[in-house]
Every structure is written in structure tokens, then in C-alpha cells.
Amino acid sequence: MNLDLDHMLAQTEKGQWSVDELDWSAPLAGAGSLSTGERREAGLALLFTAGLERQAARIFRLAAHFADDERARAIYGHFDVDELRHAEAEIRLARRYGVTWNDLPLPTRAMFKAMSADLERNDRGVHEFSAATIVLFELALDGILIPTLKESVRDPLQDEVFKRIDQDEARHLAMDYWLLDRKGQIFQAAGRDGGLDHLLGRRSLPRRILGRAQLAAGFSVTLMAFAAMKPVMGSLHRKVTEPAVVRRYLARVNAIPRRAQAALAHPMFRSGLAGQRYILGALLAAAGRSPRLAAYA
Ligand SMILES: [Fe+2]
Ligand SMILES: [Fe+2]
Question: What span, in angstroms and rounded, lies between the C-alpha atoms of 271 and 164?
Fold first, then answer.
């Protein structure tokens, strides 16, 4: 995949905006048809999204730290700021629904804490895994959560926030594809073990096992946090698992190798894909829908 990094950097710099440019005193509009419970759900979903945006900020901070190209480093530095801005905007939007951070279920807050602790270390393994899989999270945010929230409430301020976020996210996705493709090419050239040695250095067996265990632990914490969101998400949980929404998301996931041609050569991307299919299946089953993803093809 070819990407003009000079152009991307210029566009990223031009696209910067501030939450303070928006008028936060505007009262929430278009939520009149929502019950008190549904308003709360919408607010919690915004906070959940904000929690994910903060993780994305850390992932980009790591990508900047390990970038071998000056322009990529500068772009990722801006993306870090973008994601923190998105989180800030979503927390402010949630406040208009009367919901604040501590209203999130404890396991969910605990997941965000655990994820941050992992991402806070400048660990090459964490970087490589997150760089290989962030596209799956960004597509989920971009293709599932935000459109669902947009459809639930037609609030001009919220629409404006999401419009700006979308513009930033289009650049993030382009860089996600670019990085995934570059990493995948390493595996195409060196094979699975050679590629891992290239990215992570030669590791002893105990270190390899530890790396796997950390990955599995992170994965189960994520699953628990999603499960904890279920009772507080109520009707929103049904909306995000609508067959049409799932179909659209999976179509974009399946199209990743068209953008990042070497993606499937990357074993961490394939693990992420398996994990994401597992989480999606669990979410679908919990909503009383078929967990067989083939049913949404
Ligand atoms: Fe974002
Ligand atoms: Fe993003």
C-alpha cells in the first residue's frame, strides 16, 4: 500500500481542532423521545467510547515511540492528541446526558485501567500487537458505536462532534492500513518465526510464554468489561448488534487485506481477528442473536 506521508502529515496538521471551538452550553436536543434509562445508556456508551479513545491515544503514542520514519512519528504524535480530544469531547457530551465516568460499571473501569497500565510501558511486544490490531478497534468505533449513537439522538452539537471525529478517523484508518501492511510485509519476507524475531528480537522460551499469557489475560479482561457493559447498555446493546450493523462492520473487516495487502501474513493480526470474532460472537449471543458470523456475510 502506498501512502504519501508528507501529504498525510500536512493534512493532519491542517485538520487539528479544539473542543473549545464548540459551544458546550447548547442544551441537548433531539433526545426528547428517549426514556430516562435510554438517556443514561447513551451517556454510558459515550463514556465507553471515550475509554477506548484514550487507549487508542496510548497506542499511537507507542507507534510514535517506535516509528522509524520522522514523518510517521510526527503524524502519530498528532493522532495521540486527536484521540485524547475525542475522549474529552465524548465525556463532555455524556455530561449532557447526566452521566459521568464513575457511572461506568467497575469491571469496565478496571479494564481501562489494566489496558492503560499495559500500554503505558514502552514495550515493543505491546506496540507490535496493538499496531497490528488497532484497525479492528477503529473500524468498530467508526462503523458500529458512533453511527448507532448518531442514529439514536439527532443533537446538532453531537452531530458536529462526530463529524469532526470522523474526519480525524479517516486519517487514522489510512495510517492503520499503512502500518499493518508494512508489518505484514516483514512476515511475507521472513516467515512467521523470522518475522517475530525481526520485530521482537530473539526471545527465550519463558519470555515467549509470558508474552502469550499476558495476551490471554488482556483478552479475558476485555471480554469481562464488555460483559459488564451489557446490563447497563440495554436497548443500545440490541442496536449495536443489529444484523445490518454487524454485516457492515464485517464487510469492512473482510476488506482490510484489500487496503493492507500483507495484513494476513501478520500472525498478530490473525490473532486479533480471531479474538475480535470471539468477542463479537459473544456480544451477538448475549443479545439473543446468532453468534455464527457466517450468518452475517
Ligand atoms: Fe478517535
Ligand atoms: Fe482513531
Answer: 32
User: Residues 54-73: pLDDT tens digits?
Assistant: 999 999 999 999 999 999 99
pLDDT surpassing 70 at residue 147: yes
Where do the domains of the chain lie? Answer: 105-296
> What number is the average pLDDT over the span 25-51?
87
Distance CA 210, CA 273 (A): 21
Cβ < 5 A residues, ion ligand 2 = 56, 138, 169, 172
- In this prediction the pTM is 0.91
Q: What is the dihedral of CA 67, 72, 74, 77, to 10 degrees?
A: -70
Q: Which residues crowd ion ligand 1, with CB under 5 Å?
A: 53, 83, 86
Cell of 250: 464485517
Q: State yes or no: pLDDT of 104 exceeds 70.
A: yes
- Closest to 267 (Cα-Cα) out of 174, 170, 198, 204: 198
Which three-class secondary structure state does DSSP give residue 66? helix
For residue 204, report the phi and psi dihedrals to the nearest 5 degrees.
Answer: -70, 165
